[in-house]
Amino acid sequence: MYNYIVIEGNIGAGKTSFATRFSEECNAMLILEQFEENSFLPKFYEDPSRYAFPLELSFLADRYQQLKSQFSVSDIFKDFTVADYFIFKSLIFASKNLEPLEFGLYSKLFSIVSSVVPKPDLIVYLYLNLENLKKNIQKRGRPYEQNIQFEYLDKIQTGYLEFLRHQPDLRVLLIDTNGLDFVERNDDYLWIKSLVMQEYPLGIHRIQNSTYEK
User: Fold this and answer.
1) How many CA atoms lie within 13 A of 3 on its CB side?
2) CA distance 60 to 121
3) Is 84 one of the catalytic residues?
4) How many CA atoms within 13 Å lie on the side-chain side of 214?
5) How far apart are CA 55 and CA 60, in angstroms?
6) Spelled out in words, what is the top-level CATH class assigned to the domain 4-211?
7) Catalytic residue among 84, 169, 176, 188, which?
8) pTM to 2 decimals?
């Protein structure tokens, strides 16, 4: 079994919901991103060009501090660790949101910070198309997210997939979750859970939900 699993995905993919239930059932230490505490996030959605740089810097600092704190203390009563974000999402979002000069500076800071954070043994990317992402965003009803455009979701999705395709030293499980509802339908959740529990070699592994017999 893996010691450190990351559940990733675009905005609205359901990564927190899956990571929470999975950690509870598997006796894992859970690390959840505290994004709602970031005061720059609502401002960014209102004025991206003005608030992108302080938003990305604050997210990087928060993620670094949280991961460093969590991994500095071992919990002998937990079998492994599950997080609903990967530190490299900071670089992915920054590459799409920042101007070139800002991103150049940000990249230097990121390389320093990321070098001291553990790499996950497995990254699970919950893939949803843009229409279903938008439906989930609307369903959960966070006011500052309601004006997120398809273009922005597409930009972030592209950033994730570009990054994951070029990481031969990471173990990546990319699961197509379109047509599934792992929050409301237990069989859907159990199928994804069974995939996460399997052993995989390094590289990217794509799972189509057409292989799932409902």
Assistant:
1) 6
2) 21
3) yes
4) 11
5) 9
6) alpha beta
7) 84
8) 0.93
Reduce the secondary structure of the chain to three states and give it as a string.
CCCEEEEEECCCCCHHHHHHHHHHHCCEEEECCCHHHCCHHHHHHHCHHHHHHHHHHHHHHHHHHHHHHHHHCCCCCCCEEEECCCCCHHHHHHHHHCCHHHHHHHHHHHHHHHCCCCCCCEEEEEECCHHHHHHHHHHHCCHHHCCCCHHHHHHHHHHHHHHHHCCCCCEEEEEECCCCCCCCCHHHHHHHHHHHCCCCCCEEEEECHHHCCC
pLDDT digits (tens, 9 = 90+) for 22-47: 999 999 999 999 877 789 999 999 99
Report pLDDT digits (tens) over 141-198.
888 888 899 999 999 999 999 999 999 999 999 999 999 999 999 999 999 999 999 9
